[in-house]
Amino acid sequence: MASKTVEDALNYLFLHNTVKKDLQEGRVPVIVRGEGNYIFDEDGKRYLDLMAGNTRPNAIGYGREEVAKAMYEQAKKMHYYTPAFYITTPAVELAKKLASIYPGELTTTCFVCDGSEAVEAAFKIAKQYHYLANQQKRFKIISRQNAYHGQTMGALSALGFLNPMRNVMAPLVPGHAFLIPPYCYRCPLNLTYPACDLACADALDSLIQFEGPELVAAFIAETMMQGVGALPPPTDYFDRIRQICDKYGVLLIIDEVIVGFGRTGKMFASEHYNIKPDIMTMAKQLTGGYAPLGAAATTRKIAEAIPTFLHLHTYGNHPVCCAAALANLEIIERENLVANAAAMGKVFLEGLQELQKHPIAGEARGLGLWCALEIVKDKKKRTPFPPQENIISQLTLAGRAQGVIVRGMGNNALEFAPPLTLTRKELEEGLKAIDQSLYEVEKKLGY
Ligand SMILES: Cc1ncc(COP(=O)(O)O)c(C=O)c1O
């Protein structure tokens, strides 16, 4: 019997991306409370959240009074004023704080509501920059196969895999092209790193040539890709990408919406690869999920070339969200959570590597507290399970029965992105539960 809340949700609420049958058949928990790194459903069942809120924003754990108080105080003092024509102080304070921690030469930030809007703002910065530099023909955006950049129209047009939403919303924004990804476990060119000499990065050169160098505004790339499950690139990949972008005057947009603010064991994942983005997008861990906020930042050079940034969202620079971000960043720094993500991430990855003993566990990979385990039907041949076998959903449900929240990426990978506050004890509890879920699903499948 579905609970009253589930029944009401069925009748009155559009749950994002959720199959109604799962609701009807009781597979969608009602989450009512969070404490530390645990969440609780309406029946009081406790889960260790190895997915930081599932979409991965939660950096500092649940129930942080300090953030709630900062939001309350700001809401009392000045909850809202427009982001255009007037200045509100939390946005300025936050922009200045971010400029002090950004990688490369980024200085200047535009605040929006989420990651998709951050990507839209990044495209607008790139296009306005070129437009004002008498390069009005540059309208094309190149992203990558398997890329995910969000669900608004521009971001969706840069989506590099089949998603039913693409068909529903077609035609998408014209002028998007897709580079092959640096997916070494299943190399699209059937090559092996480093003997490949980064052929997948070099393909950007020929793609820009094909698209017309004078027509391309920007190349957008996630530092680590999420589409196939937490995929770090080869260490020298972005050096090659930067060189090619510079050769053609194409701006490099780095999408740090998931990885920004400590997830990979550095404040920004760009620091692992010494990337100097022209524009960078952020969201999620910027507020730890306590309030909706996204951001697109650019360099002094680009910002100074745009005398009026043509962009307006009612909730841009929102004072309460900026106050939440400031309190969240304060906690990340004070509690050394970036270092904790690096230390716990190393142990987590070692634990996942041990789980490769399972017949269906392929590659384990990750950086900091963002890891993935490829799930394969045939380990030697790296064959994925056919989608109709729903292997990822079986594993996710088995994990939930064990009291941990994990998530799948596509049909091929289990993903792990716990809050940065994860302790060693919780980590061990999580790995044990993942181990057990793998055993149970394998037993059912006759391995
Ligand atoms: C790399 C990346 N960019 C952009 C987005 C879109 O962010 P949002 O869902 O906040 O709109 C996401 C969301 O997961 C993402 O992973």
CATH topology term of the largest domain: Aspartate Aminotransferase, domain 2
Could you describe the largest sheet, including whether it forms a barrel? 7 strands, mixed
User: Which structural class should the secondary elements be placed in?
Assistant: alpha/beta
Give every kind of bound small molecule, once each. Answer: pyridoxal-5'-phosphate
Text of the CATH class of the largest domain: Alpha Beta
Model regions low in confidence, pLDDT < 50 over at least 5 residues: none
Named CATH architecture of the largest domain: 3-Layer(aba) Sandwich
Structural domain count: 2
Q: Kindly report the average pLDDT value.
A: 97
Q: How many DSSP helices?
A: 15
Give the end-to-end Cα distance, rounded to a whole number of Å: 33 Å
The order of strands across the largest sheet is 4-10-9-8-7-5-6
Q: Compute the CA-based radius of gyration.
A: 22 Å
Strand and helix order: HHEEEHHEHEHHEHEHEHEEHHHEEHEEEH
* Apparent shape: globular
Can you characterise this structure?
- There is one protein chain.
- With 447 residues, the chain is of the alpha/beta class.
- The chain has two domains: 36-60 and 336-445, Aspartate Aminotransferase, domain 1 (Alpha-Beta Complex), CATH 3.90.1150; 66-334, Type I PLP-dependent aspartate aminotransferase-like (Major domain) (Aspartate Aminotransferase, domain 2), CATH 3.40.640.
- Helices cover 38% and strands 16% of the residues.
- The protein has 15 helices and 15 strands.
- It has a seven-stranded mixed beta sheet with strand order 4-10-9-8-7-5-6, with helices on both faces. The protein has a four-stranded mixed beta sheet with strand order 1-2-3-13.
- Helix 3 runs antiparallel to helix 12, helix 8 runs parallel beside helix 9 (237-248) and helix 14 (391-401) crosses helix 15.
- The longest helix has 22 residues, at 424-445.
- The model has no long low-confidence stretch (mean pLDDT 97).
- Bound molecules: pyridoxal-5'-phosphate.
- The site of pyridoxal-5'-phosphate has 14 residues, from helix 5.
